[in-house]
């Protein structure tokens, strides 16, 4: 029971601090808000400000329990003692939301088991809390994403652990619903606001997302809050009101990258409506205040201000270009045969896109009728812009930020038909109720039964988590068998929020991918050095020589890879020397892998092969050569190379082409060589999920790999590198 009370306390203190911070700001600005507007708009602005304060504490590495909690108490004391309007107003119509709110509340209060919530959202929070500040994490691309909501999870987690964070996220859903209702009142159409708020709030994907430690519903609330403040400014033309509008536009980026669309939208809107550069400068500068810290953090830690994106522009050794491109392509299509199936998938099925918004949104074209009104045009403009950003990731939950705008636009033409609005709400409520979802969308991500016993910890937290979450069991198994301070290479993730060990998921960073490539070379024939390509030419004195790749990859993901590059004269290999200067393009950071005499490593471009890629060696002095040998694999078949030397004029000239290829056998101990590479890079543990690529080979002969099995269960096997 103490765990349950701590979760409530953590969430309550954080939420009240957000509201107090916002109330303090809007009172200082003299914003005249109605009672129905005050709580949601103050909470959202305060959340933006509090996030920045927590960010500062983490940057300074002083995020200790007394410091963080002291900050919250100071904010609460300052904000609530100076507030001008004492009561938070709730519309009687919000009673319609009560059954869903109870359902959501107990789900959020129960132990956190959501995939991303227990994986990286709270995994990173737990890591920051242990370190009392940010850490430089270069082996997890998710650590580079902006984490505005995670900053609010930090104090909640310190007090009430995982469930407290989920309850904070649920508060954003409540604030969003209240803001939508208040917006309906502001435009003189209360029941439009009520109906639209319910369509959004009761949406199945909103319910499960809001009651988990995610950030999609928070983004929707922040985006709508920014829109709302812009409307208030437009009504009053008080420039100080652009401060909360700008802060929320920038906070949208801090919550999630796709929220950035609000910044140019706000700039265009303010410039068009005011025609004054001071107003434009104010909203822009306030946005930058929220955005800049995250970009600076990424620039300092991973050399890319928008990591893990744009790695072709901001080249760095931490994220492979091809990994970004493959991930982006997968997010754009999921497992859908084509985009035309999306409307049915996200409204009725929800299995392939992980959730559904509800059948009522098949009526979304009704929103076009709202174009007859100014409010409708504005709503559809913002909704349309957010929808355009959605196609970068077509998972259902990435539609959540669009829902408030399309829900309001759908309800707006029916403002004079309250019975129709009521019927829509009832229809949506019935079809969105979790038990009814089983009848037509059993494969969608959704809530199960009401978890009141789990929330109150009548069912012990440990028992519940072990029973329903293999990822939790795997995390605890790792904690029990891996010493503190050790890192674990994993083919897939576990519930990082429940382990203190550093899990390097194979596809979450360039370093991890290279390690897994060595493991795959150990058992996968196509990845092994089984092809020897030889360039022969009349003996020539050269100081600088390179192998140039001249083909375009086919298929597009085809790379160029080289296990070893060797130089000969009269059949004798030129000994490698420290004075050699090695260069490569692209991926210059791994060039040494083509010169390390290990059969289990290879230099790879890690992006699609195209003309102009090269491996370049400067010997530091002229060397007489008559042959260059390149060991490679046959997983990439369309690569073409020529050999060039630099002449005295500094120009590259071809000295050999069309290398002669022949089959060779790799070293017999290549599996041991693969795990040796792990150990050489400080990785002493390997976690394989049953059914993963290569898991059977390792499981069948761990000794042949130089591995010792130390634990198994929950669908994983844990090995220690024993050589």
Supply the key terms.
3 domains; eight-stranded antiparallel sheet; five-stranded mixed sheet; 25 helices
Overview of the molecule:
This protein is an alpha+beta fold. The chain has 3 domains: 2-309 and 334-437, no CATH class; 475-520 and 669-721, no CATH class; 529-663. The protein is 49% helix and 14% strand. The chain is built from 25 helices and 15 strands. The strands form 3 sheets. Strands 3, 5, 6, 7, 9, 10, 11 and 12 form an 8-stranded antiparallel sheet that branches. Strands 2-1-13-15-14 form a 5-stranded mixed sheet. A hairpin with a 2-residue loop joins strand 14 and strand 15 (716-721). The radius of gyration is 29 Å and the shape is globular. The mean pLDDT is 94.
SSE map:
Blueprint (H helix, E strand, L loop, with lengths): L1 H28 L5 H25 L5 H17 L16 H12 L5 H17 L16 H39 L3 H12 L2 H7 L5 H21 L5 H14 L6 H13 L2 H26 L18 H13 L8 H8 L24 H17 L12 H9 L6 H15 L1 H4 L14 H4 L5 H8 L1 H12 L5 E4 L11 E4 L4 H14 L7 E19 L11 E2 L1 E6 L2 E2 L7 E5 L17 E2 L8 E20 L8 E6 L5 E6 L2 E4 L6 H11 L4 E5 L5 H6 L1 H4 L1 E7 L2 E6 L2
Parallel strand pairs: 1-2, 1-13
Antiparallel strand pairs: 3-9, 3-10, 3-12, 4-8, 5-6, 5-9, 7-9, 10-11, 13-15, 14-15
Helix pairs in contact: 1-2, 1-3, 1-6, 2-6, 2-9, 2-10, 4-6, 5-6, 6-7, 6-9, 7-16, 7-17, 9-10, 9-11, 10-12, 11-12, 15-16, 22-23
């Amino acid at each position: 029971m103490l765990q349950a009370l701590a979760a409530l306390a953590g969430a309550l203190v954080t939420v009240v601090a957000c509201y107090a911070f916002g109330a303090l700001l809007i009172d200082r600005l003299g914003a005249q808000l109605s009672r129905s507007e005050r709580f949601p708009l103050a909470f959202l602005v305060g959340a933006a400000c509090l996030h920045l304060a927590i960010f500062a504490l983490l940057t300074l590495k002083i995020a200790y329990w007394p410091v963080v909690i002291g900050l919250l108490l100071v904010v609460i004391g300052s904000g609530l003692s100076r507030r001008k309007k004492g009561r938070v107003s709730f519309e009687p119509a919000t009673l319609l939301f009560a059954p869903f709110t109870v359902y959501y509340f107990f789900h959020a209060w129960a132990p956190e088991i959501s995939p991303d919530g227990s994986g990286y959202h709270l995994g990173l929070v737990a890591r920051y809390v242990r370190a009392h500040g940010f850490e430089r994490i270069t082996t997890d691309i998710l650590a580079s994403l902006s984490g505005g909501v995670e900053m609010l999870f930090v104090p909640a987690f310190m007090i009430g652990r995982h469930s407290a964070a989920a309850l904070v996220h649920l508060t954003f859903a409540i604030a969003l619903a209240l803001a939508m209702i208040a917006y309906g009142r502001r435009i003189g159409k209360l029941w439009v606001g009520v109906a639209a708020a319910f369509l959004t709030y009761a949406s199945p994907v909103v319910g499960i997302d809001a009651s988990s430690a995610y950030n999609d519903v928070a983004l929707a609330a922040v985006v709508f809050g920014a829109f709302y403040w812009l409307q208030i400014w437009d009504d009053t033309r008080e420039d100080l009101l652009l401060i909360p509008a700008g802060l929320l536009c920038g906070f949208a980026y801090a919550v999630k990258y796709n929220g950035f669309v609000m910044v140019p939208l706000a700039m265009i809107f303010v410039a068009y409506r005011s025609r004054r550069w001071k107003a434009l400068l104010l909203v822009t500068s306030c946005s930058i205040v929220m955005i800049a810290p995250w970009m600076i953090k990424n620039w300092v830690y991973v050399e890319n201000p928008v990591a893990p994106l744009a790695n072709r522009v901001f080249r760095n050794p931490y994220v492979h270009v091809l990994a970004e491109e493959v991930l982006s392509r997968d997010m754009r299509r999921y497992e859908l045969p084509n985009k035309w199936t999306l409307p049915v998938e996200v409204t009725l099925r929800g299995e392939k896109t992980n959730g559904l918004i509800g059948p009522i949104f098949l009526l979304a074209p009704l929103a076009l009728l709202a174009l007859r009104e100014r409010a409708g045009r504005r709503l559809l403009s913002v909704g349309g812009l957010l929808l355009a950003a959605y196609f970068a990731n077509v998972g259902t939950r990435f539609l959540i930020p669009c829902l408030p705008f399309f829900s309001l636009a759908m309800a707006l033409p029916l403002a004079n038909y309250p019975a129709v609005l009521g019927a829509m709400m009832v229809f949506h409520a019935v079809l969105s109720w979790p038990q009814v979802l089983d009848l037509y969308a059993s494969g969608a991500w959704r809530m199960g039964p009401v978890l009141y016993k789990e929330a109150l910890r009548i069912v012990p937290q440990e028992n519940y988590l072990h029973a329903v979450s293999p990822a939790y069991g795997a995390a605890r198994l790792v904690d029990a068998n891996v010493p503190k301070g050790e890192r674990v290479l994993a083919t897939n993730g576990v519930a990082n929020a429940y382990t203190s060990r550093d899990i390097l998921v194979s596809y979450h960073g360039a370093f991890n991918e290279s390690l897994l490539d060595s493991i795959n070379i150990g058992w996968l024939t196509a990845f092994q050095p089984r092809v020897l390509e030889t360039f022969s030419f009349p003996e020539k004195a050269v100081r600088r020589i390179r192998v140039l790749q001249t083909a375009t990859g086919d298929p597009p993901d085809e790379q160029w890879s080289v296990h070893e590059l060797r130089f000969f004269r009269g059949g004798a290999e030129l000994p490698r020397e420290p004075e050699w200067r090695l260069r490569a393009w692209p991926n210059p950071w791994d060039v040494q892998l083509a010169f390390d005499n290990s059969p289990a490593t290879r230099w790879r471009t890690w992006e699609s092969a195209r003309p102009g890629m090269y491996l370049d060696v400067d010997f530091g002095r002229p060397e007489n050569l008559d042959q260059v040998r390149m060991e490679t694999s046959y997983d990439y078949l369309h690569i073409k190379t020529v050999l060039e030397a630099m002449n005295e004029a500094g120009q590259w000239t071809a000295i050999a082409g069309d290398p002669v290829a022949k089959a060779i056998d790799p070293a017999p101990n290549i599996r041991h060589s693969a795990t040796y590479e792990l150990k050489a890079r400080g990785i002493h543990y390997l976690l394989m999920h049953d059914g993963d690529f290569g898991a059977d080979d390792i499981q069948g002969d761990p000794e042949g790999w130089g591995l010792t099995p130390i634990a198994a269960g929950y669908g994983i096997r844990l090995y220690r590198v024993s050589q």
